[in-house]
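Dear colleague,

Following up on Tuesday's group meeting, I ran the structure prediction for the two-component complex that the binding team flagged. I've pasted the input sequences exactly as they went in, so you can double-check that nothing got truncated or mislabelled along the way. The structure tokens for the whole assembly follow below. Feel free to forward this to whoever is handling the docking comparison.

Inputs:
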Amino acid sequence: MYYLKLIWTFFRIGILNEMAYRVNFYVQLLQSLLSLGTAIAGLAIVFSHTDTLGGWQAVDILALLGVFMFVGGVIGMVISPSMSQLMDDVRRGIFDYTLTKPCDAQFLASISQIRVWRLTDILLGAGVLIAALIYRGLDIGPREALAFAFVLCTGGSIIYSFWLMLATLTFWFLRIENILHIFQSMYEAGRWPIGIYPHWLRYILTFLVPVAFAITVPAEALSGRLTPESMITSGLLCAFLIAFSRWFWKRGLKNYSGASA
Amino acid sequence: MKHYTATYWAFFKTSLLEQFQYRAAMAIWMIGRILEPIIYLTVWTTVAHARGGSVGSYSPADFAAYYIVLMLVNQFTFSWIMHIYDFRIRQGELSNFLLKPIHPIHADIAENIAYKVMTAVIIFPTAILLFFLFDPNLAFHIQTFALFLLALGIAFIMRFFIEWTLALVAFWTTRNEAINQMYFTLGLFLSGRIAPIDLLPGAIQTLADALPFRWAVAFPVELMLGRLSQEQILNGFTMQAVWLLAGFLLIQLTWRLGIKKYSAVGS
């Protein structure tokens, strides 16, 4: 409860901050609509030459696109800005202020920055997803919906843990903010089902940069493709990465010595 | 002329040294530009297999050749100038450039070339690796290659002129993100990155013919692949010449108008 209240507080601060720059909202909305339009036009071009792509119908890929935008929006709203902020704070030595607060430092660092306007991506993504489902005649039962919710949460946690581990590296190597860009570049590959890629790339996108679990697997749950194996793998990997990133974070913290004058 | 060569050499050397400091960051920033052609290559190869072997006149091996050459052409012709110019103007950094007794575009061109030379160390091995992974259908003819190099050279300057003009829009807007994204989106479709131009719907193809994107990227690629007739090659070079001239005039105009608007802020 306490944690939820904190999240809400940071969210409110995010809103207040952004209220000073209202034009940003329109800029962000325009950018979100543009990228949605681009994605749909790209899909239309590909599907003007074929009916299925690696066994996926156009409407299934549309649902995948919805998941892609939704997860991308969550990353862009909280995870990416907070982790950049963390790396910046550690470099400048002002991470001290986070450590001295009477709350878990990992939690605080993970929600310290909230880009409220990225909500546009989250809402558009959810909208696309729902539109795709309605187009298919809402043919998913409670079992699929539950499975979807489960793998979306585990996939999201996997992504979060991955980002946290990348950002934690900053305790050892100060100037590596570009490392976060690796993820952003690889994320683009997630707008298509991972199954179409060559083996080596599929491997990278599953285990090195776990885009597959956050996007393809949830979309599979919605189109009845989810195998029990991938559901279990997603759950286990999620549990492992949360524990491991926590351990890694603690190791990193021990290495932190402040850098202020 | 001699004066220019010496200046360019000096700019080139300093940029090279400066950028060498950021070599790791540079490699990371290249991931996206390498991954994008691989993504669309895979998508189109999958479509080709689903249709029993080809899409339009492209077989999987043709797609492989197309996207590997596209990766190289895009790498050698792209610029990032429009993403940094609004910062330059907002922060008054432009004043430093104005104090030099030479048009500021020269320093930017030299910096871009230095970057391309340095990243060649990554992009060529990548291309060779992809060559073995995807088995492209690419024949080498010395004449075609000579024409390709010419088209690539013109494409580089032409694209630089146009993107520099776009960067100068920041004199009026101070924030260019949205405009840049629109330019990027148009480029994605019209320069043949999402799909080869032949596979796009007719109306978009007409648009691609009229705008510069196709002539800066897709034209050199198709030329290298030997997909163009003599007539098409001639037409391509004509369009390149037209847009090169248009870009040159646009820069002159926007620079003159923009610089009058510019007033530096800060100490």
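The interface with chain A takes residues 24-25, 28-29, 31-32, 35-36, 38-39, 42-44, 46-47, 50-51, 55-56, 133, 175, 177-178, 181-182, 185, 188-189, 194-195, 199-201 of chain B (CB under 8 Å).

Cheers,
M.
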